[in-house]
Amino acid sequence: MSVERAALAGGYSISRLLMGGWQLAGGHGSVSPAAAHAQMQAYADAGITTFDCADIYTGVEELIGSFKRLRAVPAIQVHTKCVPDRQALATLRRTDVERMIDRSLERLGVEQLDLVQFHWWDYATPGCAAAAHWLDELRRAGKIRHVGVTNFDTPQLAALLAAGVPVATHQLQYSVLDQRPVNGMAALCAAHGVQLLCYGALAGGFLSEKYLGQPAPAEPLENRSLVKYRLIIEEFGGWGIFQNMLQVLQLIAAKHHATIGAVAIRYVLDQPQVAGVITGARNAQHVPATLAAMRINLDAADRTAIAAVQAAASGPGGDTYTLERNHSGPHAAIMRYNINAAN
Ligand SMILES: NC(=O)c1ccc[n+]([C@@H]2O[C@H](COP(=O)([O-])OP(=O)(O)OC[C@H]3O[C@@H](n4cnc5c(N)ncnc54)[C@H](OP(=O)(O)O)[C@@H]3O)[C@@H](O)[C@H]2O)c1
């Protein structure tokens, strides 16, 4: 089964299923380099040739770099991020940004980064557009092929676009549980040709048979991803309505001879402006189920059943990533804002 591809600007093409690298970083249990390379090989061999990582995912750029050096793989595309520390934003200079980009180039062992997704932790600190322009200058200098963003809200992305930053993609959370992109962001992106790359489609693994019919897991949860999406389930309305969603997805999965995860991925792939869905992995076990998303055709009855549960949910509401920017809220409390310099 071949994996659909999406064309970004300038003849650049990605697999619409992307492998996420956060799960190979700390906070998700340790994975040996050999095991990580075997996982990457399995995803690439399956046609999932686009990998997502970040300069703040400890050790992951290096792992992808060594994978590219040591293994004979078909062409892979690597998307990284530029996430300056929150405490450094007020004094950030062009040289700091260039140093971060040079560090990613070196770790990945490439002369050009395919996509750099820029994040700015605090809109109250000026300098966001200036930093994005510095990335664009590095793009024009050849160090970066495309500039994207991650976790912006609609007014701030509109401001960057108005300032002339050529934003190719926006990486954000989008799932059957988290519909916030429809509250303005997807329309803005459609108007400006910005393509969406989506995380959270599996809610860290919660959207799977493993949790169907089960009580809410006891704390502490197994990894940081589950901690993050447990909060999203609470925003959705709690474990009870989440179970309703799992039941609906399971019925749809049975109809299509697939799994809950595959249906959850397909649902996001089908949303307007979505170029790709990033799924995290700690090994290769989920490759077949992820690939199955390619052969599912959700019909009107499937979409209506999912929408009925969504209509009864309490959230998450508002613009993309606004809840997470509320510094006194639970989502912000689990963030690590200042790990770039130490990485
Ligand atoms: N920009 C950002 O702020 C941001 C935030 C989060 C993530 N991301 C990116 O998005 C990627 C995805 O991360 P995520 O946190 O959103 O996690 P996710 O993809 O929603 O969930 C990943 C987990 O789901 C399980 N899984 C994987 N494939 C599956 C399948 N086909 N069916 C059922 N379960 C499956 C695995 O858990 P088990 O091994 O336990 O089964 C895996 O660790 C990250 O690696 C990162 O690249 C970006």
Features:
globular; 13 helices; two-stranded antiparallel ribbon; 343 residues; eight-stranded parallel β-barrel; TIM Barrel; binds NADP nicotinamide-adenine-dinucleotide phosphate
Q: What overall geometry do the principal axes of the alpha carbons give?
A: globular
- DSSP strand content: 5-15%
| Main beta-sheet strand count, sense and barrel state | 8 strands, parallel, barrel
Looking at the structure, the CATH topology is TIM Barrel
The CATH superfamily label reads NADP-dependent oxidoreductase domain
Number of helices: 13
The appropriate CATH architecture is Alpha-Beta Barrel
Distinct ligands: NADP nicotinamide-adenine-dinucleotide phosphate
Provide mean pLDDT, rounded: 96
Instruction: Tell me the domain tally.
Output: 1
- The topology string of helices and strands comes to EEEHEHEHEHEHEHEHHHEHHHH
Let me know the number of strands. 10
What spatial order of strands do you see in the largest sheet? Answer: 3-4-5-6-7-8-9-10
- Percent range of helical residues: 25-40%
Regarding CATH, which class?
Alpha Beta
